[in-house]
Amino acid sequence: MEITQRKKTRLYRDIVAQIRQLIQDGSLAPGDQLLPERQLAEKLGVSRSALREALTVLDSMGLIDITPGGGACIKKVGIESMVEPLAAIMLKEKESVFELLETRRILEIEIAKLAAVRASKSDLYQIREAAMEMNNDILNARDTGESDVNFHLSIARASQNTILYNIMQMISGLMREGYGPSRRELLRGPIEEQRYWSDHNFLILDAIQNRDPDRAAELIKEHIQKAEVELRCYFDEVDSGSNKQGSLEKE
């Protein structure tokens, strides 16, 4: 780990920028322990107070973990660290659920097109397995939430775009955490409704197998738009029930 000495007149921002750069270029990896405070301050040529301020900022950014008496180490930035704060907002703001679905619609339409062009035999097998898994869950009256997520992630993987796949992983985490209960109700409806989601998955699979990006995109768009409509109906029913309950309590 090569750290450049800074002039004493430099502010804590320089320290933050330098350590961030070391993380980005791989010189500092997740789990690496930073030098003890006194040694690190001497190596950087800064005061310990400036270093402490920089470490506090890095900690608030989620880049390091500071343990009292144990120093600081580089933190692994995973999907979970991004999902949890966003999920907390979604649980409070109903409209955030529909913003998430809007985001899914925008992304998954293009992902489906890429998958139809780029999917390998292995990718097609994984998509088919995920579609069959959800179908089996329905037939055996099991919760379909996880198999539904797996189906959409398998398509994202088939796009051969790592960034899109990672974004979809984060969105999947939000789907689980942010509107899990309402989503479970949506997927737990009458058997005919559940069959719709499963049958539609197989239609999407067919379009990708047939290398038809436009058809795959059209089906994904229909899929998510129906989810939006169903979810709005669900929330309207919940709100209606809450209003009725409130009226009864007033009486």
What is the CA-based Rg, rounded? 24 Å
CATH homology superfamily of the largest domain: GntR ligand-binding domain-like
Mean pLDDT: 81
- Would you identify the CATH architecture of the largest domain? Up-down Bundle
Cross-sheet strand order for the largest sheet: 1-2
CATH fold naming of the largest domain: Four Helix Bundle (Hemerythrin (Met), subunit A)
Compute the number of structural domains. 2
Class per helix and strand makeup: mainly alpha
Portion of residues in beta strands equals: under 5%
Brief synopsis:
With 251 residues, this protein is mainly alpha-helical. It contains eleven helices and two strands; from the N terminus they run αααββαααααααα.
Tell me about this structure.
By secondary structure, the protein is mainly alpha-helical. It folds into two domains: about 10-75, Winged helix-like DNA-binding domain superfamily/Winged helix DNA-binding domain (Arc Repressor Mutant, subunit A); about 80-240, GntR ligand-binding domain-like (Four Helix Bundle (Hemerythrin (Met), subunit A)), CATH 1.20.120. The protein contains eleven helices and two strands. A two-stranded antiparallel ribbon has the order 1-2. A hairpin with a 3-residue loop joins strand 1 (about 65) and strand 2 (about 70-75). Helix 10 packs antiparallel against helix 11 (about 215-250). The longest helix is centred in the last third of the chain and has 38 residues, at about 215-250. The protein starts with 11 loop residues before the first helix and ends with a helix. The relative contact order is 0.10. The model is unreliable at about 5-10 (pLDDT under 50). Pfam families: FCD (PF07729), GntR (PF00392). It comes from Sporomusa termitida. This is HTH-type transcriptional regulator LutR. One of its GO terms (molecular function) is DNA-binding transcription factor activity. Keywords: DNA-binding, Transcription, Transcription regulation.
